[in-house]
Write a structure and sequence with these properties.
- The chain is mainly alpha-helical.
- The chain has two domains: 177 residues, no CATH class; 46 residues.
- It is globular and about 50 Å long.
- The N and C termini lie far apart (69 Å).
Length: 237
């Protein structure tokens, strides 16, 4: 008789962590879907071809940077402004990496590259909470991150493709742009557990409102820098 292949004792733990990561993104995906639809419409309105709009989602895979980048392209912003703005918007990923790094530093370079690509606000939020609350073995922790990131990636690519396909046929009366704000509020609020984090969020929000009239969305650049600066300063006190 043919022997059945042996199942590694670690396999169930890996699968459980992966599925837990996938399931952690299901509620968030409901807010990401309209976000992706809007991006597809915005990208086409900015002059990108359908292929370019979809390629940006696959290569960049960063919703806020894609929105800002597409808008700046549509306005004919100089490349240095485009680069600087998207860099500042995404600099928060360095903070995410600093927090998750100790749980992932044992991984191979290939694993770290993959998880860095899949790192988003949504994946970070659920992964950071999971790592803080669970006593998961170090060898299994990255599977949760992988599941969360893959679920977000699939949702984002699919919703972007639908937005690109429908284009301007999505009526403005649907008010899908409001879902973007709700999604980020839902992600950020549970993470504001310390005074530096709360102060950074408040300062960044106030600065963004006060500087919203600046050209090329530079108000977001100043808001990001102000929030990070205040958060770092308070951490050192």
């Amino acid at each position: 008789m043919m022997q059945e292949p042996a199942i590694s004792a670690e396999e169930p733990g890996r699968q459980a962590e992966w599925w837990a990561g996938v399931k952690s993104q299901l509620p968030i995906a409901l807010g990401v879907i309209p976000f992706g639809l809007i991006y597809g419409v915005v990208a086409l309105a900015a002059g990108l071809t359908p292929a370019q709009a979809q390629a940006m989602s696959a290569i960049v895979f960063a919703g806020s940077a894609q929105f800002i980048g597409a808008e700046l392209m549509g306005k004919g912003a100089p490349l240095p402004v485009l680069w600087l703005t998207t860099l500042v918007v995404n600099v928060r990923h360095l903070l995410y990496s600093a927090q998750l790094g100790p749980d992932l530093q044992h991984l191979s370079r290939g694993w770290r590259f993959l998880l860095a690509y899949l790192l988003t606000d949504e994946a970070y939020a659920t992964t950071a909470v999971h790592y803080a609350d669970q006593q998961t073995p170090l060898t299994h922790k990255h599977w949760f991150f992988l599941g969360a990131g893959m679920m977000l990636w699939l949702t984002w690519q699919t919703s972007t493709a639908v937005g690109v396909f429908l284009g301007a046929e999505i009526p403005a009366s649907w008010g899908l742009d409001f879902a973007l704000a709700l999604t980020f509020i839902g992600i950020v609020v549970p993470l504001l557990t310390t005074r530096p984090m709360l102060a950074a969020a408040v300062v960044a929000g106030v600065t963004a409102v006060l500087a919203h009239t600046l050209p090329y969305n530079l108000g977001l650049v100043f808001a990001g820098l102000a929030g990070i600066g205040v958060g770092v300063w308070m951490e050192k006190q």
